[in-house]
Amino acid sequence: MNNENIKTLEQLFPFLSPKQTEQYSMLPSLYKEWNEKINVISRKDIDNLFSHHILHSLSIGKISSFDEDTKILDIGTGGGFPGIPLAILFPQCSFHLIDRTAKKIKVVQSVANELGLQNIIAEQIDCMDIKDKYDFIVSRAVTNMQDFLKLAKGKIKKTSFNKLQNGILYLKGSDAYEEMANYTGYYEIFDLKNMFPKEEYFNTKCLVYIRAK
User: How far, in Å, CA of 69 to CA of 26, rounded?
Assistant: First the structure.
């Protein structure tokens, strides 16, 4: 990761420790090495890992800071996004990263081990087989919003202790507005272009917060 990217991270999250900065710096080389063996990130996109994957994931951390002992489920984590960047940012929280594809979980576990992350459990499992409950569920556009709500149903704790009430933080494209139009519960949609105005990639990216009912 180049100095400009590190500077961007330090500006966004001025509380980062040297250890966290080092962990973020390690991500590009780790993913490039794995991507040569297993295509977990589009080969055309691997050079954009910082903005398209790390920053994108960390937009969740700009909307909400998670208190110690918060439990977070990352559904359809793929190669570990948004879970791994968030696990670095919030080392006192626990993250359960799940995916149905074994090779992707293998990458997630390896990257977590290389970074020395002790707050991640990576598991190959279907979301419908998860029985635990979490404070928050995060994900990156694994399906349309209505289907995702079905996946998340029954997996969020009712009692909240974070400033943001328990719920879903879902990274989507601009189709989020249409998909949420008929939703009757409380939600907010954040346009990421306002968060990262210098990055054209975020012009059509949104973060949807859905408060647990």
Answer: 25
